[in-house]
Amino acid sequence: MKKYSFLPILFMILSTSCSKNPPVESKNWQLIWEDNFDKAELDTTKWTRIAPNNADWGRHMTSDSICYDIADGKLFLKGIVNPDTLSDPRPFLTGGVYTKGKFAFQNGKIEIRAKLECAQGAWPAMWMLAEEKKYGAYPRNGEIDIMEHLNFDKIIYQTTHSYYTLELKQKDNPPHSGTAKVNIDQFNTYGLEWYPDKLVFTLNGEETFRYPKIEGVDPSQWPYDQPFYILIDQQLGGSWVGEVDPDDLPVQMIVDYIKVYE
């Protein structure tokens, strides 16, 4: 019997040595929602084109078909120079879609496979917002930025925003944002695994950043206890990304698929 006595010790050693870089949790995920963009037009039972708004990211948004296309099983969201400033004085137009009022989920996994094009002032984003105002006005219900890319960067940003991080300025307890190197010349899969006690951000199936729920802090640190909807948009310009160079346009985000699991 003595020859088996080292197995528990060996298991403990291996478990400890692996704990420094925790892997994405193994789970039998079940697909609950998807879009492969295999129809001739945008599926309006799933998506709505984003209208312009006063936010930094939304000032060039349009529902005009000029910024949208579906071909070869892919969705093309475009950022362009406005060809008709007499009808619309804005210099640029951008395309984006969201599932607000049509699909939202709480906990689970989302994967978005896409290719990002680069331009000065290009700011493609994949993100999520709360479907309801459970805790009041923004930012009390939080924001989950699965992926943001700026200009010609070779990294992406993955971030959480909330009253806790924005108003209480608690951006390091715990760290609310991470970056990951990305090959911008290819399609990549941007993801999030959402658990009751943590948000695990991924790139091509590998964990890149983790935001945990922590104890002993203001409860606004964790507004992620409610359903969120999905936004995917090819943004242009803003205080973070900088001015747009019209000579770099058009630019587009090419989306292959979105899949949501529970």
Structural overview:
The protein is built from two helices and 16 strands. The chain has a single domain, classed as Jelly Rolls. The model is unreliable at 1-22 (pLDDT under 50). A hairpin with a 2-residue loop joins strand 12 (188-195) and strand 13 (198-203). The chain is 6% helix and 39% strand. The protein starts with 6 loop residues before the first helix and ends with a strand. With 262 residues, the protein is mostly beta strands.
Give me the CATH architecture, please: Sandwich
Number of helices: 2
Label the structural class: mainly beta
Runs with pLDDT <50, length 5+? 1-22
What would the keywords be for this entry?
262 residues; disordered N terminus; globular; 7-stranded antiparallel sheet
What are the SSEs and their pairings?
Layout: H1 7-18, E1 31-35, E2 48-49, E3 68-71, E4 74-81, E5 92-94, E6 96-98, E7 108-116, E8 122-130, E9 143-148, E10 155-161, H2 163-166, E11 177-181, E12 188-195, E13 198-203, E14 206-212, E15 228-236, E16 251-261
Briefly summarize what is shown.
By secondary structure, this protein is mostly beta strands. It has helices at residues 7-18, 163-166, and strands at 31-35, 48-49, 68-71, 74-81, 92-94, 96-98, 108-116, 122-130, 143-148, 155-161, 177-181, 188-195, 198-203, 206-212, 228-236, 251-261.
